[in-house]
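note to self: dont lose this again. the chain is below, predicted strucutre after it. 154 aa total, dont forget to put it in the shared folder this time
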Amino acid sequence: MAGLLASFLRARGVLVLGVAGAALFYLDMLDEALAFAQAYGWFLLLGAGVVLYADHHLGQLLVRWDVARSLQVANDPSRVDILRIEARKARERQQLELEAQSKAHKEAAAVKKKEARKPAASPRRPEHDDYNPLTGATSTARYKPSGFARPRGG
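---
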């Protein structure tokens, strides 16, 4: 009877050897990468800083160029003339709408003024000279407590 390790290697030996070989290869590559970083680390750090600085300023420059191009297109004389014509048409349309609204308001005010001239029917209330709200003898509303609030005598 073979040992546990021998049976494991017999069943999966090729796989284990492949994983071990890959680990050694990548460990060697990692060792070389670390050696390179140790030798040229300051240059790598300086290069990364220069790239980030250049990227920042290049981005700002591209934004300024984009804004300048947009302004140039917006102030194109042929486009400005078209916009002036459209703005004039819009103002004329708004003026016509305002005049129509003003006319409608004047007509509504005239109708309201005619209705306001008619005397309103005044409600007839009997006038009593002996008005006293404390007596309860008036025809106006007064306070009446509900059935729950009345004392029950208990």
